[in-house]
Design brief:
Blueprint (H helix, E strand, L loop, with lengths): L3 E2 L1 H5 L3 E2 L15 H4 L18 H16 L8 E6 L4 H9 L5 E6 L9 E5 L10 E5 L5 H10 L8 E6 L12 H20 L5 H11 L5 H4 L3 H12 L5 H9 L6 H9 L8 H12 L7 H13 L10 H7 L3 E2 H12 L3 E5 L11 H4 L11 E4 L4 H4 L1
Helix pairs in contact: 3-4, 6-9, 6-13, 7-9
Length: 387
C-alpha cells in the first residue's frame, strides 16, 4: 500500500501560485501596482513579478508577515528556502537574503552520479548574516541541510519561516518525478493545438516545432514561458508563420522576442479557427499578463490532475514515478520536522493559477486546487536522520 496525502496536509492553505493570491482567505495580496515596474513591452501597467525578481521577494515577505501575525507576536527573524532550480530559486534566495538571514537548499536527483553536496555562501548583506545555498544531487541531502544549519547555530523556532517550492520540489521532484509534470504540459499544448486545428492538425509537425523551440537556447525568444511557446506552436502549425522562416529569422536576429513574433502574426492573415485564440493571447499579453494563453493552461490543469493517484496499489514504484505526480517524501519529512519546532511553513510556486486551480465548471464537479489533490508519497524517509 502506498502512503497518500496532500500538500494541504503539510502546509494547509498557506500557499500561493503565480498570481500571488493566497489560498488562505485570511491573507491579502499586496497592492501590486505601486510596487512593481511596468512591463518592458507595450508600456503597460505594473504586473505581477516573477520569482527571480526583487519585487517578488518583497511581496512574499508581505504575505509571510501576515501569516506570522496570525500565530505569534514575534517578528520573523530568519528564513529557509527549499527549491529545485539554481537559477530561479537561487535568485529568489539571494533576493530574500537582502531582507532576512536566509539559507537555501536546491535539490535535483541525479542517481547515476556519486552523491555531491556543495554550499555556496551568499554575499553578506546589511544584517551581516552568513547565509548560503546548498546544491545537492540527492533529495535525501535535505537531512544534510538540516545538519548543516544546526552546525551553523541556525535556530528552528517560531521566529523562523520555511518557504517550500511546490512544483518539482514538494511534488514531482526534479530529476526523479518531474518528467510527469512536463508530460502533462506537453499534452496540454498538443491538445490545444489539435482542438483548434481539427483535421488540419499534424502531430509530427507539432512535435518537431515544440521539441526544437523548447530548448534553453531559445529562451531569449520564448522567455521560457510555456504560454508563449504554445501560441508559437499554434501559429506555426496553423500556417501563420512558416517554421523554416521562423528559424531563419531567429538565426539572423530579425526576430528576437515574443513581442515581435505576436505583432508579426497580428499583421498576417490568420485563419478563422485561429482568430479567437490569437485575440485571447494578444489582449492578455498587451495587458502585461504573464499567463496570456489561459485556455491552454486550463487544459494543463486537467492533464496534471489526471496524473495524480490514478494507478492502483499493485503498481510498482518505478511505474508510479514514471506515470504519476507524487509528493516528495524527503520534503514532507523535513516539513514535519520544522513544524514540530514551531517553524512557519509557507508554499510558493511560479506555476500559473490557471493550471493549478480548477475553473468554476470543474470546481462545481468537485475538482480541487493542486495543493489539495491526493497524491501518493514516494521517496526515502529521512525522519530517523533529522529527529
Amino acid at each position: 500500500m502506498f502512503e497518500r496525502g496532500t500538500i494541504y496536509d503539510i502546509l494547509g492553505d498557506l500557499v500561493v501560485y503565480r498570481n500571488l493570491e493566497p489560498a488562505d482567505g485570511r491573507l491579502r495580496r499586496p497592492q501590486l501596482l505601486p510596487l512593481f515596474p511596468p512591463q518592458s513591452w507595450g508600456g503597460g501597467r505594473g504586473g505581477i513579478p516573477r520569482k527571480a525578481e526583487p519585487a517578488y521577494a518583497r511581496a512574499i515577505l508581505h504575505l509571510l508577515d501576515q501569516a506570522q501575525a496570525l500565530r505569534s507576536d514575534r517578528p520573523l527573524q530568519r528564513l529557509i528556502y527549499i527549491g529545485d532550480t539554481a537559477m530561479n530559486d537561487g535568485q529568489a534566495i539571494r533576493n530574500l537574503s537582502q531582507h532576512l538571514p536566509t539559507y537555501g537548499f536546491i535539490g535535483h536527483e541525479r542517481g547515476e552520479e556519486v552523491k555531491r553536496i556543495e554550499v555556496t555562501p551568499l554575499h553578506p548583506s546589511y544584517w551581516g548574516g552568513n547565509g548560503g545555498i546548498m546544491l545537492a544531487n540527492r533529495w535525501t541531502a535535505l537531512a544534510d541541510f538540516i545538519h548543516f544549519l544546526q552546525g551553523q547555530g541556525f535556530a528552528f523556532d517560531e521566529a523562523t519561516v520555511a518557504l517550500i517550492d511546490l512544483d518539482k520540489t514538494a511534488f514531482g521532484a526534479r530529476g526523479r518525478n518531474s518528467q510527469v509534470i512536463d508530460a502533462a504540459r506537453v499534452e496540454a499544448v498538443r491538445r490545444t493545438v489539435e482542438e483548434v486545428l481539427g483535421g488540419d492538425f499534424d502531430e509530427e509537425e507539432f512535435r518537431a516545432v515544440y521539441d526544437e523551440l523548447n530548448q534553453p537556447r531559445y529562451h531569449p525568444f520564448t522567455a521560457d514561458n510555456q504560454d508563449y511557446l504554445a501560441y508559437i506552436c499554434l501559429m506555426v502549425s496553423g500556417g501563420v508563420y512558416d517554421f523554416a522562416q521562423l528559424l531563419a529569422d531567429l538565426e539572423a536576429e530579425r526576430l528576437s522576442s515574443f513581442a515581435q513574433f505576436i505583432e508579426a502574426c497580428a499583421e498576417r492573415t490568420i485563419g478563422e479557427e485561429l482568430i479567437p485564440v490569437h485575440q485571447e493571447v494578444y489582449a492578455n499579453f498587451r495587458r502585461g499578463d504573464p499567463t496570456p494563453f489561459k485556455s491552454f493552461r486550463y487544459r494543463e490543469y486537467e492533464e496534471t490532475v489526471r496524473r495524480m493517484d490514478h494507478l492502483p496499489d499493485d503498481a510498482d514504484e518505478e511505474r508510479v514515478l514514471a506515470e504519476e505526480i507524487v509528493i516528495t517524501r524527503e520534503v514532507a519529512d523535513v516539513c514535519r520536522f520544522l513544524r514540530g519546532k514551531g517553524v512557519l511553513l509557507f508554499g510558493l510556486t511560479d506555476k500559473p493559477d490557471e493550471s493549478s486551480i480548477p475553473p468554476l465548471e470543474l470546481a462545481q464537479k468537485g475538482y480541487l486546487p493542486l495543493h489539495r489533490v491526493t497524491m501518493k508519497v514516494i521517496g526515502d524517509s529521512i525522519d530517523s536522520l533529522i529527529n
